[in-house]
Each structure stands twice: as C-alpha cells, then as structure tokens.
Amino acid sequence: MEQMLFVNACVRGERSRTLLLARHFLEVYQAGHPDHVITERDLCRERLQPQYPEILAERDALWEAGRLDQPMFEAARQFAAADRIVIAAPFWDLNYPAILKIYLERISVANITFGYNEKGEMTGLCRARDMIFLTTRGGAYQEAGLGWMEMGARHLEALCSMYGIDRFQCLAVEGLDDERRDREGMMLVGLTQAEALADSLS
Ligand SMILES: Cc1cc2nc3c(=O)[nH]c(=O)nc-3n(C[C@H](O)[C@H](O)[C@H](O)COP(=O)(O)O)c2cc1C
Q: What's domain 3-200's architecture?
C-alpha cells in the first residue's frame, strides 16, 4: 500500500491559507487514490525542539552506536520509507517557518535519509519518488521578478537531491497580503491548481 507523508508546518493552524490549500489537495488526492494511506505530522502539535546541545549529544551517541532504531530517529525512518511526501508551509521571512527547519534537521540523518557511497559521494536513501511543496506568500515575488529572493522552495528542492527524491514540485499562491488584489479569487485559482496537481499524480 502506498504511503503518503503529509508534513504540516502551517503554524496558524486552522486559520492558515496554506493549510486550506493542503487540505484541498489531500482530499482530491485521496479521492483519486483511495487505497493510499496519508499520514500527517503536525509539527506544531509535536512541539518539536531544536537540536540543543544535550539533544545533539544524545543523537550523536546513538548514531555512533548504530542504534538507528531508537525513537530519536523515528521521524527520519518514516520520512525515508514514504512513497510520496507533501510539505505545507507558509512563506516566512523569504523562507519557511523555523519549525520546518527543525524537522528537516531531525530527519536529515546519515544512513537513514542519505548516505555516502564508496567514492565518498552523497547518495540519497529515501524511497519517495516525489515531494510536493504547497505554500502561500504575502508578496508576489515571481511576478515582480524577485524569485531569486525565495529561499524556502529552493532549499527543499536541493534537499530532495540530497535525499534521492527524483521530482520536486511547488505550488505557491502569491500576493495574498496585497489588499489591492482579488485575494479570494487568487485563492480559488490556487485551489483549482491544487486539484490539477493532485489529479496529475499517478
Ligand atoms: C512571521 C511571518 C513572516 C512573513 N514573512 C513574509 C515574507 O518574507 N514575504 C512575504 O511575501 N510574506 C511574508 N509573510 C506573509 C505570509 O507569507 C502570508 O500571509 C501567508 O499567506 C501566510 O500563510 P498562512 O495563512 O498559511 O499562515 C509573513 C508572515 C508571517 C506571519
């Protein structure tokens, strides 16, 4: 049975437009793939802690001892085993919220999500064939030719390469904090794009 992992980093919870986009995407996806299992990780509910020195020391000790089966590495094992990964996060300070970075640091574990071959080259160990990133942004960066300022989707795409995930797709609804715009209309267009994206997946 196909496993989809939904990483929810929508800090505003049920008030989040990004979460609305993601829920719609997942609903359409589930309708088209009734036998696929969607598992959600709500990062805010988990109250994930940054890797403070004592947490990192514990992680290093477990890793050195080869104890990758420990709860410390559960999130990394889950990420590595998923067939498809969906991440939803708003655009914050030209990037994504810190809670998502904390999660990514937790799941980036050598010999679980990535490794090195005999030539010393980095190789991805994740099973997923694609990652889908859903986001909303206050400003309209693409339209203004300011795409280079965007660091969130670009970082996730680079991580896909490190994890061995072949395909990265990003759906971004932009300009939602600009009161001069038809923001409801733009959100509706985004929801339709989310439907199309969900339908396009095998
Ligand atoms: C802490 C914070 C930082 C933000 N930084 C940016 C930013 O750098 N650029 C931008 O265009 N919008 C920024 N925004 C606006 C959000 O991207 C926008 O409102 C988004 O739709 C929020 O998504 P949500 O409804 O899922 O929380 C920021 C919002 C917050 C709360």
A: 3-Layer(aba) Sandwich (3.40)
